[in-house]
Design brief:
alpha/beta; about 40% helix; binds flavin mononucleotide
């Protein structure tokens, strides 16, 4: 029996997300980002299509590497305006029952204590359907917004993230026992104080000595996503991530990252399949191959190449406005994200990219592949990608929203179901149960489990 393919929709509380310029195409609703009905309609569409989740990217800071100013980003709507993703989740949860929500939140600029409460609140209000994409940022503009001159060095960000995880785990997993909020109306006791204790962590970057403000939520720790694939990023993912989101233009780029992360997870005492891996892709489809090709040709009329290079400059830390369009891209190491630069240089030495090719490729859905064709063609491409890389599924960027996701639901999901590669109904339970088939909480082999305390153990330690 072949494994079922996982599908997330990939979006952001922004315009056009990873398809710059396409917000102008008739039918695209992303310019409605400030209206709640846009998001609740999207959530309903995704649940009707049995998508596993909606993965919401978020970036603190403006994309001002391209041309050394925010002008291009502002002009093209390149991830600005960008509103807070977490605010959308309660409303979307209210109109769905099964859809998961992966919320990106940057740990560099938010103290762990209020962040942990926000995620616990969302986990309660969604009945355990929330995930957190753990990011540390890649834009100096975000650091300047926080009063720093530039961001921390790349690998140091991951070291800081390790400590941040200790703090949030101790709040989510250790501060309250299950059932501590007894709600004893007869005795007038809401919470049994003997079953609640302060989370105490003393680190180099963060310390906490506090009782978590929320009682335990269905999953306690939200489902943990991670998306950086530099060596430091992989090591972090192997320890913590339950879902990894990768982007790359070809199986040659993705396959070694997948096997390396699974190998490192085993070295970290976890199982290779404890990590569910999603590959970025964009699907342009219709009833036939010809209809899909025509749609793609129409989309191309609206793309913004400058918007695409603005994105790429932010991701890589390299100002592509200083390059000629036919210049070849050479590897440069910066303190921004490293996977994005690897994708178009060292990760596949057989492919040399010019700046123009990068702009054209990235303009529809970012650096992942674009699968174009009718149902059979696209399903074949998806299966071939999975066979060649070992990923579990896809985070699907949109070219046009909600059209791209509606097309997947109408044309691709039924084809995958016929092949036995896609579920016909949601599994019961929390997001973690739906994804892993195990319980609602992290398994004991995950590092978060070390922060669990029973009342008896806490007393013994005092
Ligand atoms: C597919 C993908 C999606 C990402 N999404 C976000 C995001 O939404 N917000 C963010 O701040 N960083 C995002 N990142 C950046 C990573 O979290 C990470 O900071 C960056 O890739 C640098 O790490 P690396 O050098 O290990 O790749 C994403 C990265 C990748 C590869």
């Amino acid at each position: 029996m072949p494994k079922k393919i996982r599908l997330n929709a990939f979006s952001m509380n922004a315009v056009g997300h990873q398809s710059p310029g396409l917000w102008r195409r008739p039918g695209d609703r992303s310019a409605e980002l400030n209206r709640l009905s846009f998001w609740t309609d999207l959530a309903r569409t995704l649940e009707a299509g049995l998508f596993d989740g909606l993965f919401l990217a978020d970036v603190l800071g403006v994309y001002d590497v391209y041309g050394g100013s925010p002008d291009a980003a502002l002009r093209h709507g390149t991830q600005i305006p960008a509103n807070d993703p977490s605010m959308l989740v309660s409303a979307m949860a209210a109109v769905t029952r099964n859809l998961g929500f992966g919320v990106t939140s940057n740990l560099t600029y938010e103290p762990a204590f209020p962040f942990a409460r926000r995620m616990s609140t969302l986990d309660h209000l969604t009945d355990g359907r929330v995930g957190w994409n753990v990011v540390t940022g890649y834009l100096d503009s975000a650091a300047r917004a926080a009063g720093l001159s530039k961001q921390r060095a790349h690998d140091d960000r991951y070291a800081v993230a390790e400590e941040y995880m200790d703090v949030v785990y101790s709040l989510w997993e250790g501060s309250w026992d299950d059932g501590a909020a007894v709600r004893d109306f007869a005795r007038g006791i809401f919470t049994d104080p003997a079953r609640v204790r302060p989370a105490r962590v003393r680190g180099r970057h963060f310390s906490v000595d506090a009782v978590h403000l929320s009682e335990p939520s269905p999953q306690r720790t939200p489902v943990l996503y991670q998306a950086g694939t530099s060596p430091a990023g992989r090591a972090f993912a192997a320890r913590h991530a339950e879902c990894v989101f990768m982007s790359g233009p070809s199986p040659t780029v993705i396959a070694p990252r997948v096997s390396d992360i699974r190998r490192c997870a085993v070295e970290a005492g976890r199982r290779a399949d404890d990590v569910t891996i999603f590959s970025l892709a964009t699907i342009v489809t219709g009833p036939t191959d010809a209809a899909a090709e025509a749609k793609l040709a129409d989309y191309r009329k609206y793309v913004s190449h400058e918007g695409a290079l603005t994105l790429m400059s932010g991701w890589t830390g390299v100002d592509f406005s200083t390059y000629g369009l036919d210049q070849q891209v050479a590897h440069v190491e910066t303190e921004a994200g490293r996977s994005a630069m690897e994708n178009i240089t060292r990760a596949d030495p057989s492919r040399v990219w010019t700046v123009r090719e990068v702009a054209e490729h990235v303009a529809i859905g970012g650096i992942g592949p674009v699968f174009v064709g009718g149902p059979k063609t696209v399903a074949d491409l998806m299966e071939a990608w999975i066979a060649a890389t070992g990923v579990d599924g896809f985070n699907l960027a949109y070219a046009v929203v909600p059209e791209s996701f509606e097309d997947v639901a109408e044309f691709i999901v039924p084809e995958l179901q016929r092949r036995g590669r896609f579920k016909r109904a949601y599994a019961p339970g929390t997001l973690r149960e739906k994804l892993s088939g195990s319980g609602p909480k992290l398994p004991s082999r995950h590092p978060a489990a070390a922060f669990r305390q029973t009342a008896a153990a806490a007393q013994a330690a005092e």
